[in-house]
Amino acid sequence: MTNDKAFILGISLSVLLGSSPLWAGSIDPGHHLHRGAIHEAEHAVDQAWEMYHRAALGGTVASPGLQAGIEDHLHEARTLITELQDAAERRDTEQVKRLVGQINMHTSQAIEGSKERKK
Questions:
Q1: Which residues on adjacent β-strands are paired with residue 61?
Q2: Which of 44, 63, 78, 89 would bridge with 107, disulfide CB 3.0–4.6 Å?
Q3: What is the pLDDT of residues 1-39, one digit of tens each?
Q4: Segments making up each domain of the chain, as ranges
Q5: What's the rounded Cα separation, in Å, for the pair 77 and 29?
Q6: What is the value of pTM for the model shown?
């Protein structure tokens, strides 16, 4: 059998058996199922960090205690992003929803704190 015939036979058998690399899907379809939620949550956390940095650099954060609280919220939100990615990989839709809610709560608290000015 020539190399060309062996190649064609191999492709034909792959197609017949359903293992064609041309038909291969995503390696991790569960993660892609929630890609939009992950992207939005990451974006929200990034925006909250940016607002905090602007306020901190501008010296307008109301107090050192508030600043520490904001940082706690931001760090917790970052930690939850990792959990969100894991939940998405497991295709755990309920966990994804719960984590997105928690991330949104932490980013909202950080943003509100960053808006609070010194008196």
A1: 117
A2: 44
A3: 565 565 555 555 444 444 444 444 444 444 566 889 999
A4: 1-26, 34-115
A5: 24
A6: 0.71
